[in-house]
Design a protein that fits this description.
Length: 295
């Protein structure tokens, strides 16, 4: 498939479309890892081609555990995307991160269970580095776009990703705070893992909708209060996406786009042809004997 967009936006709760996206066409995409959450919408924004996926689908029919993360990332890779920005609703685990503020986090603790975590399985093994799951280059650009758009944004912090769909217990909330975590959400993993395997730069703009239940002001986290804050914030977020789209794609020098260069440990001649075809959009340049260090 010919490259069609270099920037991909994955919209979370409350963000089911992109205001200002022009000449939009929707592409139904079936991948070896299933169908995407919804048809991928591709259009022009500030003169740049952008691909958009609503993570939970339009109408919010997919819970965090049911999202086809691997299909979404695979499809964006097929479309030529090199940078992926995740826009996600989160709870705050720190007093200074109040509801209706924005955070560009720099690390994750993964507490999910049973989700598709890798493209490399059933006969192919790869171990990518995930020490820094968010691309600092793209995160810099995202922070700059947010500040240019006037958003109250802070940089850094650890995102705890829980399985959901229930909110955390009070004991869990206090535990995550004791770990030094800043944010709690349900969708950054395995999205960040898969983006790294696909050699995509990945960054997150987290929208703080509530203090988690550790906070004295929170008797419990309710959908009503979360949605009220969420819808107040999504309009502001849509204003910064054109700013981000207009930024030149700075070459990543921290390894995101070469993450598989020494990660695949299976010998190419041991990989079945059907697996080679399945992985071609993700790792095709590494799956020939000539290019493999052990070939």
């Amino acid at each position: 498939m010919e490259p069609q967009a270099s920037l991909g936006i994955i919209g979370g709760s409350g963000l089911y479309g992109l205001h200002g996206l022009e000449n939009v066409r929707s592409i139904d995409m079936e991948t070896p890892f299933g169908r995407t959450s919804e048809p991928v919408r591709i259009g022009s924004l500030n003169g740049q081609k952008v691909a958009f996926i609503s993570r939970h689908s339009d109408g919010h029919t997919l819970s965090p555990s049911a999202i086809p993360y691997a299909a979404n990332i695979y499809a964006l890779k097929m479309l030529g995307v090199q940078r992926v920005v995740s826009i996600s609703a989160v709870g705050s685990l720190k007093e200074e991160l109040a509801p209706r503020s924005f955070v560009v986090p720099d690390n994750i603790i993964d507490r999910t269970m049973g989700r598709q975590r890798t493209f490399f399985e059933k006969g192919v093994v790869a171990h990518v580095s995930l020490a820094d799951p968010f691309c600092p280059i793209l995160s810099d650009a995202l922070e700059a776009a947010a500040r240019a758009g006037g958003l109250p944004v802070s940089r850094g912090g650890v995102y705890v990703c829980i399985e959901g769909p229930q909110f955390s217990t009070r004991a869990e909330s206090h535990l995550y705070r004791s770990w030094g975590a800043s944010l709690i959400g349900m969708t950054a993993m395995p999205e960040a893992r898969l983006a790294r395997e696909a050699e995509l730069c990945y960054a997150c703009l987290a929208m703080v909708t509530d203090f988690d239940v550790w906070h004295d002001s929170e008797a419990h986290v309710s959908v009503e209060s979360v949605l009220e804050n969420l819808f107040a914030m999504t309009g502001a977020v849509e204003q910064i996406v054109p700013e981000l789209a207009a930024m030149d794609d700075v070459e990543c020098d921290v390894g995101c786009r070469n993450a598989l260069s020494s990660a695949i440990v299976t010998r190419p001649d041991a990989i079945r042809e059907e697996l080679r075809l399945r992985l071609n959009p993700i790792a095709g340049r590494y799956l020939t004997t000539e290019d493999h260090p052990r070939g």
